[in-house]
Write a structure and sequence with these properties.
- The chain has one helix at about 40-50; strands spanning about 1-5, 10, 35, 50-60, 65-70, 75-80.
- By secondary structure, the protein is mainly beta.
- β4 (about 50-60) and β5 (about 65-70) form a beta hairpin.
- The model has no long low-confidence stretch (mean pLDDT about 90).
Length: about 90
Amino acid sequence: DYVEDTPGWLIFKLPPAEVGVHPSEGSTKHALCLMCDDLEATMADLRDKGIEFRGEPKAEGFGITTTMLLPGGVELLLYQPTHASPLEL
């Protein structure tokens, strides 16, 4: 679903989301990651739609992660969080 409040400016409805802001030392970088409730199930659904993944899921300090290989050579992190979430509040 979306609205077009101004011609050409589409605003899409998204599910609940989080934004993580972390301290850094030295240069700052930005990353976009997607999260899901069940990584294995989400990977299976996405594979059925033609999405490929690099390697096997691995445990990180914040969750279980994998890298999606999207059309156009774009790589995007997908993870099942193990950290506290403001969505639980």
